[in-house]
Amino acid sequence: GVALVQRLMLGGQVPRAEWDEALVHTLVVVLLPVASEGKFEAAQEPALHALHALVARSPHLCEPLAQVMLGGLLGACRSTRRQVAAGAAKVLAALLEACNPQRALRLLTAAITTLEPPALQAAVKLLGERAAAADAAVLEHEAESIIEVLQDSLSHAHADVRKAVVFAIVDMYRVLGARLTPLLSGLSPSQLKLVTIYFTREGLK
Asked: C-alpha 179: how far from its chain's center?
């Protein structure tokens, strides 16, 4: 950003693509703290709307910032204000859709290991959505590490977390079918019974 301004001041030419990239980066730097921190309560929703518009307009420019944006937006998912949490989840869904499918799965898998409710179940739900949208070959490559992380959350004290995990595994099974079964061997009998009930309920068994 600074280098770009210096070039302009010296009368240099800046390609449109470079200018757009610098502008998007600057807007994210400004908007993300406002959207993710409760101390900016009155401005959180407008900031989230602006971020969503930015991702929708320039997904290819936002995608390289996905890891940074993910952390801040998952922080906003902890908000007790329903509109803020829902707005953050909406931005995240659009951002992750713009990412390479494998990268999206890996970002979420890594994030889940560090989160607590309600951000945890929000991340698990997003993971299920990205798994459901992924190509089978991509998901199969990532499935083992995903299941390892989800297995830990399947014993979580919060029922909403356990439910989100089960639905994420169901989403994975829709794509992989029986290829997922060997990876579920590490589940406890009670966990496996719970997952199997949902498989049956969804008509997958």
From this structure: 24
